[in-house]
Write a structure and sequence with these properties.
Strand 9, helix 13 and strand 10 form a beta-alpha-beta unit. About 45% of the residues lie in helices and about 15% in strands. The protein folds into 3 domains: about 50 residues, 434 Repressor (Amino-terminal Domain) (Orthogonal Bundle), CATH 1.10.260; about 130 residues, Response regulator (Rossmann fold, 3-Layer(aba) Sandwich); about 130 residues, 3-Layer(aba) Sandwich (Rossmann fold). The protein is an alpha/beta fold. Strands 7-6-8-9-10-11 form a 6-stranded mixed beta sheet, sandwiched between helices. Strands 2-1-3-4-5 form a 5-stranded parallel beta sheet, sandwiched between helices. It has 14 helices and 11 strands.
Length: about 350
């Protein structure tokens, strides 16, 4: 809404900018800034101008409410690029769910950045911090990322970590699974599927240990195998960087090296690469396979029996929790008020939602 600065009431008796300026004891330029919602005016002065505009019937009720409403929070989601279908689905939801954020007076955007590059992530944080009111990211465990989060916190731009947390950081909150418990769950499932009295080898494939989530899932898995399934031998962890082709190659190498492999836990994404290698080797119904993230790909793998179980979380709830946290912080409330705890679900072929 553009205002027309003038120096007296118009012929119909309608107040003009000069009248509001006199009533509020400010300049016409200040009135123009307030009514057009441009920065550079103190809150107390802006309120005085709006009260004067209301008293002079300058704005209709709807216009007054619009002028009084704060501008929407600009929220940015930074997610790793690649073939992790769950992460891609999460980013896509940010874009096409704008109507869900409208009641919260926020706008949300997602950007996919180079995966597993902490310096690129740190640079993206600082870049978006200049034009965003809050940033949510899947964190990489690295000093450069930690320092960028600290810088933004000092500037009043809160950062939320998604799916993977950042230790000893100034982030405002973490939204995601208890990843150690998720790893224990995977270990328990694989151990029970293989059989408590059976012997065999099990392997892990991670995106990267640069994700704290993947480290914690690995630790939980190893602990429950050692605790409950001592007859199973863990033959180490390989990194596939959440890339389907790399996961395929890593799985083929595992099967060549350990023909008797009995189980695989894919800690990260791109489970389709693992499944392709199992199918080509004729081992897709012989090796117990547990992974993460319910997507169209993993649904298909559950249905055809290539995967035995998927540990997942709701992407919709994840995004809504982020929005609630940012609006809580904007409104001066505690960050986690009315925020649901993230619940893990174990999905089998027989209970697909």
């Amino acid at each position: 809404m553009r205002v027309n600065p003038g120096h007296s009431s118009d012929a119909a008796g309608r107040a003009r900018v000069a009248d509001i300026a006199r009533a509020a004891q400010v300049s016409t330029a200040t009135v123009d800034r307030v009514l057009n919602r441009r920065p550079g005016v103190r809150d107390a002065t802006a309120q005085r101008v709006l009260k004067a505009a209301k008293a002079l019937d300058y704005l209709p009720e709807t216009g007054l409410y619009a002028a009084l409403a704060p501008p929407p929070l600009r929220l940015q989601f930074l997610l790793p690029a690649g073939t992790n279908r769950f992460i891609r689905m999460l980013g896509d939801m940010v874009g096409y769910s704008q109507e869900h954020w409208a009641p919260f007076n926020v706008t949300c955007r997602a950007e996919f950045i180079e995966s597993f590059n902490p310096h690129e992530l740190a640079a993206a944080l600082l870049r978006h911090g200049k034009r965003s009111d809050g940033i949510a990211m899947m964190a990489l465990e690295h000093p450069a990322v930690r320092e960028a989060v600290s810088t933004l916190a000092a500037q009043g731009v809160p950062v939320i970590t998604l799916i993977s947390d950042l230790s000893n950081s100034a982030r405002a909150a973490y939204i995601g699974l208890d990843n150690r418990a998720a790893g224990r769950t995977a270990g328990y499932l694989i151990g029970r599927f293989i059989g408590a009295r059976a012997t065999g080898k099990v392997a892990l494939i991670a995106g990267s240990r640069s994700y704290r989530a993947h480290e914690e899932r690995e630790a939980g898995f190893l602990h429950v195998i050692d605790e409950l399934f001592k007859r199973l031998q863990v033959v180490g962890l390989r990194e596939g960087q959440d890339d389907a082709e790399k996961n395929y190659r890593q799985t083929r190498a595992l099967l060549d090296q350990h023909p008797e492999l009995a189980g695989i836990y894919n800690i990260g994404g791109a489970s389709d690469g693992v499944a392709r290698a199992l199918k080509e080797a004729g081992r897709d119904h012989k090796v117990v396979f547990v992974g993460h993230g319910l997507t169209p790909d993993t649904r298909a793998l559950l249905i055809d029996g290539s995967m035995d179980a998927v540990i997942t979380q709701s992407p919709q709830t994840t995004l809504m929790n982020c929005v609630r946290i940012f609006t809580n912080l904007r409104d001066g409330r505690e960050a986690l008020i009315a925020v649901e705890s993230t619940r893990s679900q174990v999905i089998f072929r027989e209970n697909l939602p």
